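call fold(seq) -> C-alpha cells
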Amino acid sequence: MTSFDDLFTRLAQSPFRQRFRLGRAEYDYVRSRDEATLRQHAADFIARRLAPARPANDGKQTPMRGHPVFIAQHATATCCRGCLSKWHHIAPDQPLSAEQQTYVVTVLLQWIAAQMQQPAPAARPQKAQPGPDDDPQLALW
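ret:
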C-alpha cells in the first residue's frame, strides 16, 4: 500500500471528486511534456495560488479547466485551503511549508499518472464554422 492509498480511497467515495477526468487536450498536453515540466508547473501553481496563508479568492482561485494540474487539484481536493484542511488535514490560515507544498505536488502528479494509465479520452468533435455561403440571408440576393 502506498502512502496515498487511503487518500485516494477516500477521494474515490466523493461523487464530486470522481467526476474530474483529463479531457483529450489535457491528456495530450501531459503526453507531450516530461514529468519534470509538469512538476514545475504544479509547484508554480501551488506556490502562487495555494501556499499563502490567505490566498486571494480562496475557494475560487483554481480554474475548473485549462491545465491538467487544475483538474488534478479539484480531483484531489487540493484546490483551496478549505479542501486542504478538510481532506488533507493541513491547517488553514498558515502559509504552506516547503514540505507541504511538495506533498501537494506529489499528490497531483500521482493523480495525473493514474489518469495517464487510462485509454486516451475521445477527442471532442470540432464545430463546423459556417462560411459566407452558408448564410441563409445572403442566399436571398
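Residues 18-121 form one domain.
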